[in-house]
Amino acid sequence: MEKTELNEQTSSENSSVQQKQNEENLAREQQPFRTRPKMSTSPLHGLWALTNRDLRKWYTNPIQLFVSLIQPIVWLGLFGKALNFGTFIAGSGASQAQQDLILKNFFGTTSYFSFLACGMLAFIVLFTSAFSGMSVVFDRRFGFLNKALSTPVARGSIVMGKILQSVVRSLVQSAIVLVIAVVLGMDTTHFTPLGIAGTFLIIFLMGTGLSALFTMLALRSGDWQTQMAIINLLNMPLLFASNALFPAKIMPTWLQDVVKLNPVSYAIDAARQLLIGATGMTSLLVDFSVMMGFAIILSAIGIVLSWRLLSK
């Protein structure tokens, strides 16, 4: 008898629990469905996410920043200080006034070190931009590019993200190199806030154009060795066939024509006019116009090519 009552009580409790669960399920079904959160498809959202991803890998690794600054510092500290043209001229018996006049005629300034320091700003931008293409190669190699292509992010945003992260790195590293150059003895008598701002604007345009160029060359490449070969093929001519190390006027005539076709020369020319008051190869208006066109045209081509060449 007691066993029967116990079974009935257990059955009643189970029935009560089941009824309660049914009521909860019914109440849940009657609740209005929550609105599905909207995914941000804004081009700027995707652009910032991709740019910040690459920048984070850079600024969280200070060793990478340090290594990237070694080469321009070596050029400034060793080459810039060792190649003292004033001493060469003084050895011919020229007076200080004559030395200054000769240096002014050749370099647009009495300090070759200051002349070289402006060239080193372009040097750091050139080599930083060259490795923006390597980022595309490694993203493809390790599968991140396929994941990015599977998202609503526009292909153009993928290319512009690579360009912008390279430009930001170039601006930061150029600022550090400029500070080091001033510490080592760069002439600052012509420094003005407007001149410094204009210099970094021209660096921005130069970095944008060069980063777009190297990124375009890497869009279909999956081999880092091929990309490195391209970098080595282009970097040296872009550097030495410019006015980064020496003025174009002392070069052979045929090389002077090449210098005038090299966009790097116009960026360096503008930087020298703005920072050290050197006589320019052309006017500042021409320098900025050339670099503006260079940046816009290369970026536009990069975006168009990304629509055709970027694929899983």
Care to give the gist of this entry?
The protein is mainly alpha-helical.
What does this structure look like?
There is one protein chain. The radius of gyration is 30 Å and the shape is elongated. It has one domain (42-309). Helix content is 77%, strand content 0%. With 312 residues, it is an all-alpha fold. The model has no long low-confidence stretch (mean pLDDT 80).
Query: In terms of per-residue confidence, which ranges show pLDDT below 50 for 5 or more consecutive residues?
Result: none
Query: What profile does the largest beta sheet have?
Result: none
Topology as a string of helices (H) and strands (E): HHHHHHHHHHHHHH
Q: Into which percentage range does the β-strand content fall?
A: under 5%
Number of strands: 0
Number of domains: 1
Bulk shape: elongated
Tally the helices: what do you get? 14
Distance between the termini: 75 Å
Going by helix content, strand content and strand pairing, the class is mainly alpha
Q: How helical, in percent, are the residues?
A: over 70%
Radius of gyration, whole Å: 30 Å
Mean pLDDT: 80
What attributes characterize this protein structure?
mainly alpha; 14 helices; 312 residues; elongated; 77% helix
Layout of helices and strands:
Elements: H1 2-30, H2 43-59, H3 62-82, H4 85-90, H5 96-107, H6 112-130, H7 132-141, H8 144-149, H9 155-184, H10 193-217, H11 224-240, H12 253-261, H13 263-275, H14 284-309
Helix pairs in contact: 2-9, 3-6, 3-9, 6-9, 6-10, 6-11, 6-13, 7-9, 7-10, 9-10, 9-14, 10-13, 10-14, 13-14
